[in-house]
Amino acid sequence: MCKVTWCDSTPLKGKNGQQLKYCTVHNKYKIYASNAPTRPWLMYKVEKVVNGDLFCERCNLDMMAHYKFAPLKAIISAMDVDHINPLIKGTPEGEQPSNYQLLCKMCHIIKSYEEGDYIPKKYKK
Predict the structure, then answer these.
(1) Number of domains observed in the structure of the chain
(2) Is 20 a member of any domain?
(3) Within a domain: residue 58?
(4) Distance CA 18, CA 76 (A)
(5) How far is CA 50 from CA 32, 43, 46, 91, 119, in A?
């Protein structure tokens, strides 16, 4: 299976016949998320970039329209993939597009604060 957790496609074969990590579609875009094997949500961001869906899913800010003269790389850097339900992050259910949302940095900071991410886990109840 493709290393992207929600993709059921068969990975490509390498030049010497070994199995690669990604299917044809995701292999093409892995350059944008070089550490995606350990951070699967990055491919969600890549898919949003490829589809031109660079808007904050919380405040609806269209990053491409708002920052029309900024380089694409800067706009991509200004956005984070957030786990909607952080309690299931790292589980098979938690690493699916249904648990991801693309947020601008400000919305991500505010959401994280609202969820108490600034409190060390050992003090959370």
Answers:
(1) 1
(2) no
(3) yes
(4) 32
(5) 10, 10, 6, 26, 35
What's residue 63's pLDDT? 94
Residue 1 placed within a domain: no
Owning domain of residue 65: 39-123
Q: What angle do CA 13, 18, 12 make, to 5 degrees?
A: 20
CA distance 12 to 2: 9
Q: How far apart are CA 59 and CA 51, in angstroms?
A: 19
32: in domain: no
Beta strand pairing call for 100-104 and 79-83:
antiparallel
Q: What pLDDT, in 10s, does the model give residues 37-48?
A: 677 788 888 888
Rounded mean pLDDT, 49-70: 93
The model's pTM is: 0.77
